[in-house]
Structure prediction request, 330 residues.
Amino acid sequence: MQNTSKDSEGGLVLPTVIPVSVRMVIIQVLIAICLYVNSLMILTFFKKAVFFTNTRYIFFAHTLVCDSVYLALSDALLVMSFSRVSITGGLCIFLVVILGNLTIATPMTLTAMSLERYVAICMPLRHSELSTPMRAMYSILLIQALSSVNWIIMISIHFSAVSLKFYTNPLSCSVEQMIVFPWQRHLNSALYQLYFLVMSLVIAFTYVKIMGAARAASSERKTSTNKGLRTVILHGFQLLLCLIQFWCPLIESTVMKINMNLYIELRYFDYICFFLAARCLSPLVYGLRDRDFMVVLKYYALFGHSKVITFNMDKPNLKWRKKITCTPVG
Prediction:
């Protein structure tokens, strides 16, 4: 037997396979798991100073922070929408702009991480010169600046077209509140497609170069090179999921005109597969697959029950591995 739910006007009754409340519980559980794992990894990063000197871990931590903030804010808006809670227009615009910035910042950071792997594998003698913590911080600032370009344009249009009363009036918050003119959707979509075209080309370039290096690598370096190649492939998959996010509204709007029940099911599927999954892959790509990070993560996850942990840290020089000892905290 199918359950029913009412639309926003409270009139039309629509059949759904899973009750809305059950879907909300499932989403909350998934987000809670992702946030817990991300928080544990962020704690691990800040607990060991040795990670601060490695560019790829700095980028990884930035990705974790972006994904965690994105999940928390998007979930807050989802819960408010489900509970029919209104907030002021000014606060809504602030939250939407942050979410829009993080939507671009994560795939841009993935692109930077792919470039870092390209330098480490294809230019090992210059890796220590090009890949430094200070350059990583500058890169993160550049990523945040580039991620804000689209939303600076949107805010400028919004401020020039909307009265001041909008920012104090209560409303149901969504991205649609940023749209004043119909052509803004086309501009927004065009800018996103440009971003992802450039990022896709960069990741494809790094993949081809690393694959060439893997074929020519000696047996001593082949393991490290193949691991870098798999990492770039996973980054490409994450980027694809992020790109599909911007196709979802177009597909959903078309389906809504055909079948409203199918539209509801499709939105739920898209949110789980393309929004949550894309944000929860980073721990798998770098955290759980990385032996150096994993042993420290395990140490703190088990509350320091392991007294001494020895792990290897990649170093960009002729000595490929260096011993680091983890001692108990306190």
The chain is about 70% helix and 5% strand. The CA atoms of residues 313 and 322 lie 6 Å apart.
